[in-house]
């Protein structure tokens, strides 16, 4: 009898230990909440928000947040037709309207993203009056922008509250100025390795290189336009690894880097 009780106790203890073992669950890093939001950069947040939304009919999102029927970049479009025009006073004025659906804190966040660009470049965001081409900033379906100036009313979506980071606003505004993601640069293979086997099969196209004029600027691991290390990960493994040092942080969420601002100044011939 005692032997039977001892055996039952042993088996019960074993089962308890088995059920206490952690279960390893496969994750898709771009579509699940990260446990530590402090580790997220602007693009991580954008992909997180956009992954939970159904894409609006008739609109394609390339690279996760670029709205267009085809990829173009203001730093490679013919005749700089995608650039916002420069005024005779040397400034580049980008008119905009903000949806009345935004509250005061939303407006402050978005305008902080604008100020982060305007304070160190010749690009100035101004409230639209009668201008024919302007940004129509709306809390639509996620965080996205068209690339460069498209002409007329140009939607830029910053959903609230998901996109309400000033770094996210600056990211989308830089798309509107004509900049693609940093890891899409034509020379990116010298600076990062794309781990193709870790990328979701239906998202491989988001990692294509673009034909870009890199403005004689260094590759910027700290660009607000850079994908995160786990963007579009299939199982939680990294999809982008810097080289030669794999531990270099990539991307951030604070706003344009010094090199981001430098590239805006070069592209728009700001004379700085």
Core attributes:
5-stranded mixed sheet, 5 helices, 272 residues, single chain, alpha/beta
General description of the model:
With 272 residues, this protein is of the alpha/beta class. The chain has a single domain (51-267), classed as Collagenase (Catalytic Domain) (3-Layer(aba) Sandwich). Helices cover 24% and strands 13% of the residues. It is built from five helices and nine strands. It has a five-stranded mixed beta sheet with strand order 4-3-5-7-6. A two-stranded antiparallel ribbon has the order 1-2. The chain is globular. The model is unreliable at 5-35 (pLDDT under 50). One of its GO terms (biological process) is proteolysis. Its main location: other. Residues 73-271 form the Peptidase M12A domain. The active site is at 172. GO terms for molecular function: metalloendopeptidase activity; zinc ion binding.
- Distance linking N and C termini: 90 Å
Report the strand count.
9
> What structural class do the secondary elements suggest?
alpha/beta
Enumerate the spans where pLDDT stays under 50 for 5 or more consecutive residues: 5-35
The number of helical elements comes to 5
Order of helices and strands: HHEEEHEEEEHEEH
Oligomer: single chain
CATH class: Alpha Beta
Overall average residue pLDDT: 86
What CATH architecture would you give? Answer: 3-Layer(aba) Sandwich
Number of domains: 1
Write down the CATH topology.
Answer: Collagenase (Catalytic Domain)
The strand line-up of the biggest sheet is: 4-3-5-7-6
> Could you state the CATH homologous superfamily?
Collagenase (Catalytic Domain)
Rg of Cα set = 23 Å
**How can the largest sheet be summarized?**
5 strands, mixed
Strand content: 5-15%
């Amino acid at each position: 009898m005692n032997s039977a009780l001892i055996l039952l106790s042993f088996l019960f203890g074993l089962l308890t230990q088995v059920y206490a073992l952690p279960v390893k669950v496969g994750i898709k890093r771009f579509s699940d909440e990260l446990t530590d939001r402090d580790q997220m950069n602007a693009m991580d947040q954008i992909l997180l928000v956009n992954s939970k939304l159904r894409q609006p009919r008739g609109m394609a999102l390339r690279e996760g947040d670029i709205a267009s029927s085809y990829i173009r970049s203001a730093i490679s479009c013919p005749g700089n037709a995608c650039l916002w025009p420069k005024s005779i006073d040397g400034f580049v004025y980008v008119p905009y309207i903000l949806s009345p659906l935004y509250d005061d804190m939303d407006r402050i966040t978005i305008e902080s993203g604008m100020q982060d660009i305007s304070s160190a470049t010749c690009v100035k965001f101004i409230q639209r009056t009668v201008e024919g081409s302007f940004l129509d900033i709306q809390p639509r379906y996620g965080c996205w922008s068209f690339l460069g100036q498209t002409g007329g009313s140009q939607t830029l979506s910053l959903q609230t509250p998901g996109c309400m980071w000033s770094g996210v606003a600056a990211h989308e505004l830089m798309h509107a100025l004509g900049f693609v993601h940093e890891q899409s640069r034509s020379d990116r293979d010298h600076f990062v390795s794309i781990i193709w086997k870790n990328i979701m099969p239906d998202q491989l196209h988001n990692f294509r290189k673009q034909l870009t004029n890199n403005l004689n600027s260094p590759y910027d691991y700290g660009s607000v336009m850079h994908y995160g290390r786990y963007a579009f990960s299939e199982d939680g493994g990294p999809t982008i690894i810097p080289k030669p040092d794999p531990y270099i942080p990539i991307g951030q969420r604070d706003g344009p880097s010094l090199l981001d601002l430098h590239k805006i100044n070069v592209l728009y011939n700001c004379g700085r």
